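Data availability (excerpt). The following record was deposited with the supplementary files.
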Amino acid sequence: MRNRIVVCGGRWLALAALLSAGLNGALAQVASGSAGASGAAENGTTAEVAFYSPVLAKSMSYIVYLPAGYDLTSQTRYPVLYLLHGRGGSMKEWLKIKPDLDQMISARQIPPVIAILPDAPSSNRAGYYIDSRFTGAGKLPPGERVETAFTTDLISHVDTRYRTLAGRTGRVLAGFSMGGYGAMRFALAHSDLFRAAIILSPAVYHPLPAPDSSTREFGAFGNGSLIFDENIYAQNNYPATLPLFEAQGLPLVMFIAAGDDEGLATNPAEASHEIDYEAHTLYNKIRRVKNISSQFRVVNGGHNWDTWQPTFIEGARYIFK
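Predicted structure:
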């Protein structure tokens, strides 16, 4: 199938308000860390890190990407990009885009950034980045307070350990599949913490997931021993989150993308729950929300890196513009 790209307008007045509120000034602090605009990309470094999370009462792990030159400076502070992986995956999946970060930073298409690739092993790696009320059933382990752990313990740890721009104007999110759901949820429910999100092939279903959706299988949206609770799913979904976002009154930038070959629903009657359909529905809803600047893309690709890699690159350029 030929590549097709759908370009939809955003709310540039809201983006202008974001810039005038201080984003340009914040990013100016990282300018001295930029690599040359020509020549080969300078390579950042990665390392695996673990720390204790009081919320989870156990260790949390992540991979940190530090841009070239980070260890050579003493005062420069950097924005932070949080990269959320999909269901069943691990923090190592996002290492796929390390060369792209190196290249975009070297070409000055984005500022030098610290990237945090957190591991999300809760509920057999299907925690959906929310605070689960599931207490376990059969072989399924109990859910955990993933959302609170990420938005408190992880952010606090990162801001303490690294030279970050510690504030919402210095934090952005990206996620694919289940991680796309997480990036969407964190951006809307915690707009005081994040200023932008790249949402790729999001596992977001409205009003409820299809009956055969794996979203229902792992207990993330459970309640007690009930594996899936429709009310809890609805409480965490974006229509319920938008009033909270609007009440905050803060500007947000969103880049949403999906592939045109992401798979067909088993039951044709559930076609509205296919990823490209749901992603467009999400975009159609949020583009009407005050203070959200948004873009939407459909590219030739499936539920894989053929879709996520090029759209991450475009999304990163867009949200840092």
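Summary of structural features: Residues 1-38 have pLDDT under 50 and may be disordered.
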